[in-house]
Amino acid sequence: MLIFNKPLPLSLYIHLPWCVRKCPYCDFNSHEIKADLPQELYVNAICDEFIQQLPLLNNRPVKSIFFGGGTPSLFSAHSIANILDHIAAHCSLDANAEITLEANPGTIDQTNFAGFRTAGINRLSLGIQSFNDDKLKILGRIHDGENAREGIRIAKKAGFSNFNLDIMYGLPQQTLAEAMHDIESALSFAPTHFSWYQLTIEPNTLFYKQRPVLPVDDLIWDMQCAGQEKLQQLGYKQYEVSAYARADHECLHNRNYWEFGDYLGIGAGAHSKITDHDKGEVWRAQQVRHPKDYLDASKRRAIEMKNVAEKDLAFEFMLNALRLTDGVAMHLFSERTGLAASAISHLLQQARERDLLVKDEKWLCASELGKKFLNDLTGIFL
């Protein structure tokens, strides 16, 4: 039996699965809108599922809420307000809860974004990806560079001072100068948080079937290093593999994932990780994926919790925690997995002997070598 001395922090993820058009690189559970968006039906299903899964919260306060997709900004401010009001009426929200909504520039308008603020959204994550019109066309985005700039201006005018911008590098036939122009354009808007990540080709995507010509590895490395240097110069600290933030603006929701906290996923295809403090068990679950099935109450299921085997917990913890640039305190391992530190002492020794892990018995942190070979490091704990 796993031993937990205190309940784990809890976040709530809400999946809104529709988008205007499926991007060729996207492997998320997202679906193009073929007819009218069934907002009312989906909001009702979200609220029903939340009530059904409420016992899994075990009276814990929710520290963050994240609306992901798909394109959540396709939903009206009224719909978002209804969901948040329903949640607040049935559980305890942390007084400083971070509530994030993902948005794409092609779906932004001033009225709706002001309404999002009024509804309770206090953080935005804008999927820009690039400001280069040609690259945006290749990526299948519905916006162009000027739409992206205008979307950011609208979000700021609506009162969002805490916002993230997503920018990709390593795009098809991208040059170093183009990559740096993207990052400099994004940073000119002074976001509080910045996601700077490499385009990867994933199975079950159009790009996987029709592979575009990507920059060579050495050029992608140059892009990564140049971008990191620019971000550092402008006061953004890298706190995770692809996440950068100004002081006190790290994404609390994502940090809870990386620190192996608990999260309840609501909506089509949403994933959950829940720890039963009293029984000493860690569970994972996934809701039915397709929106049509989710909207059908007879097919929408109670989350089927699957117990995470003790032998898998160390790897799952390391897979998340070692993504953090500064790592985590050693005691967090036992607090979040329920395992004694002695259960992995021989593996820690092996990682340190290979110079993949910082040699500090009170801290878990990838060394500079370990950050370059993160898969090798986490693989030690399989």
Tell me what the structure shows.
The chain is α/β, with parallel strands linked by helices and 382 residues long. It folds into two domains: 10-256, TIM Barrel, CATH 3.20.20; 310-382, Arc Repressor Mutant, subunit A, CATH 1.10.10.10. The protein is built from 15 helices and 16 strands. The strands form four sheets. Strands 9-10-8-7-6-5-4-1-11 form a nine-stranded mixed beta sheet, sandwiched between helices. Strands 12-13-14 form a three-stranded antiparallel beta sheet, with no helix packed on it. A two-stranded parallel ribbon has the order 2-3. The longest helix is centred in the middle third of the chain and has 17 residues, at 217-233. It is globular, with a radius of gyration of 21 Å.
Key attributes of the depicted protein:
Arc Repressor Mutant, subunit A, 382 residues, alpha/beta, three-stranded antiparallel beta sheet, 16 strands, 2 domains, nine-stranded mixed beta sheet
The total domain count is 2
Q: Please identify the structural class as seen in this structure.
A: alpha/beta
- Estimate the global geometry from the Cα principal axes: globular
- What ranges have pLDDT less than 50 throughout 5 or more consecutive residues? none
CATH fold descriptor of the largest domain: TIM Barrel
Care to give the gist of this entry?
This protein has 382 residues and is an alpha/beta fold. The protein is built from 15 helices and 16 strands. Strand 7, helix 6 and strand 8 (193-198) form a beta-alpha-beta unit.
